[in-house]
Amino acid sequence: MLEVMGGCPLSHAQFKKDKNMRFYEWWMHKMGVQFTDKNRYKVRIFMQYIVPAIIIGLGFTAQTLLGVKPLVVLI
Question: How many Å apart are CA 63 and CA 25, to the nearest integer?
Fold first, then answer.
């Protein structure tokens, strides 16, 4: 979606004035966090690659090591 559409279509619809704005940036701006271009790039890399890896890692850990069963079982 990021490559084909140039970002999330919902973000583009919500932030018509600033096509580079993302939802998490909007919330952080409301909390008083200001971004420079260099910081914005670092936050985007973190949100696009690191956060999904953390979520997958936590899910894998919870299911394998802690024995938590998923809500939806396919098999």
Answer: 32
